[in-house]
Amino acid sequence: MDGGEESFDKGRRNFLKIVMVASVGVxxxxxxxxxxxxxxxxxxxxxxxxxxxxxxxxxxPLLYENLQVNSSSIVLFEYPLSGDPTFLIxxxxxxxxxxxxxxPPKPVSIELGTxxxxxxxxxxxxxxxxxxxxxxxxxxxxxxxxxxxxxPGTPVPGYYSGSVNTVGLIHCSCHGSTYEPANGAAVKNGPxxxxxxxxxxxxxxxxxxxxxxxMTGPVIFGKPSDLTGGSxxxxxxxxxxxxx
Length: 244
Ligand code: FES
Description:
Blueprint: H1 3-32, E1 52-55, E2 74-78, E3 85-90, E4 107-109, E5 115-117, E6 130-134, E7 147-150, E8 169-172, E9 178-180, E10 186-189, E11 198-203, E12 210-216, E13 237-239, E14 241-243
Parallel strand pairs: 1-13
Antiparallel strand pairs: 1-12, 2-3, 2-14, 3-6, 4-5, 7-8, 8-9, 9-10, 11-12
The structure holds FE2/S2 (inorganic) cluster (FES).
FE2/S2 (inorganic) cluster binds next to loops.
């Protein structure tokens, strides 16, 4: 297991410890009160999406121009809560030029017929190429490196026979689910029925910094809601980790 994956696993283990400690605390208080049935809910999660600037691995704000186009490494940040892995991808075309996905954002379908619109990519005018999606597969919850972004022109291991990766794909090697990040991470190939939840980004044209501030689409796999099932980050920013 490498450093990035290990840090997310550690985050989830820490979360489970917090839940266990909180549960024991609540039970103890209930016993002290002689079996009072009211439970005190642990103060975990958030009531609204945080606005978190994305930092690089050295602890400085990540600048757009330092995010490699078509990187074959997996770039992740935690959002909205600690231990929630999120892809950060600078999409490019087959020649490595940033893909401008300004218009039009397409509706992305969710299971049971709901649709939503993932916003455009972000970046300088003409290169609005940076997108972010939950990195937990919507089929059964596999995480990086099992789920991985493959830039256009690169082969996708195990992808259905005869397919050509011309657009850039996120593929999960656990059972084959495939998503199209230039199309809101819509489902390209099952067994998943749901797209990857999208994270809204802002690009600051004066500082070139990127900020995550909201989510759309289905709930992050395995969670009761995007804002529960975890603890807030301990920092006022979110830092990337890189796998591979
Ligand atoms: S968990 Fe990703 S395809 Fe099944």
